[in-house]
Amino acid sequence: MNITNRTLLKGFLISFSGAIIFSTKAIIVKLAFRHTHTDGLTLLMLRMLLSLPFYLLIAVWGSRKEGNVRMSKRQWFYVVLLGLLGYYLSSFFDFIGLQYISAGLERLILFLYPSFSVLINSFLFREKISRIQFWALALTYAGIGIAFCGELRIDTGNPNFYWGSLLIFLCAITYAFYLSGTGRMVGVVGASKFTTYSMLSATAAILTHYFLRQTIRGDELLPYSGGSTLWTYGILLALVATVIPSFMLSAGMKIIGPNNAAIVTSVGPVSTILQAHFLLGDPIFAEQVIGTVLVIVGVLLVGWKGRKTEAAAEVEAEAGH
């Protein structure tokens, strides 16, 4: 194997491993709900709080790099706005929605965001939808419909099934808006800087939201009721499901390119479904398998027609979810 092939293999392995590690997020959240009786906002707060030191270090290191260009007030506005949309609102919908639906269905619904980005770019930025993208959209929505019906058949006793599904659907929509804006910002401020500062702005919003809720309720400001187990899950969410895969996906993208890295991360839904089966005891059924295949094929077709800047932003931002 020559040097080029060895380097490419290394990039694919790093990206693949990062996607697998990132896909543990929903599993960790579901295990935390099962073992600590906590809520989505508390888990999200712990995830962001414990990730904060790492992103602060990245921000400080980036600001001291030679050739660093200061952002204008307008650029700061868009970075903060998109961060609130993509990492605050979207993550909030995601963690609350996971209280009510399975990890596998959450990942499938959330995986609709590339198709939503195509629709947003078409309506807001007048980008034409190609024939391939049209059929890709049809495949993804058909896949979600099949998986959704199968999940509804399995999860008949869940009174909050539709509510949880709607929250994850809103998560995918807000994340798609974030990606559409990100594709136009990373070329100006850089992918790493944009991701870091948008994550920091969202962290500030999430911490404010949590502490305001605790203050109004008169509850403890830092969660002690779940004991060390809750903080263990918080550390796992911060390191295993956020910081580590974000660096791995970024490193893989630099080796094999953003489009290839985005394709490799399509393993996420399959990984989540398998982990949910073996770690949570969730069933695997025919509709779920068929729906997953259709969604992944549709997303790959959308990604194949996508722009490199959007793929780069998607991979950089992926570990934020």
Helices and strands, with pairings:
Blueprint: H1 3-22, H2 24-36, H3 40-63, H4 73-97, H5 103-110, H6 113-125, H7 131-154, H8 161-189, H9 191-217, H10 227-256, H11 258-264, H12 268-280, H13 286-304, H14 308-318
Helix pairs in contact: 1-10, 2-10, 2-12, 3-4, 3-9, 3-10, 4-8, 4-9, 5-8, 5-12, 6-8, 7-13, 8-9, 8-14, 10-11, 10-14, 11-14
Quick overview of this protein structure:
By secondary structure, the chain is mainly alpha-helical. It has one domain. It has 14 helices and no strands.
Question: How would you describe the overall organization of this protein?
Answer:
The chain has 321 residues and is an all-alpha fold. It has one domain. 82% of the residues lie in helices and 0% in strands. The protein contains 14 helices and no strands. The protein is globular and about 55 Å long. It starts with a helix and ends with a helix.
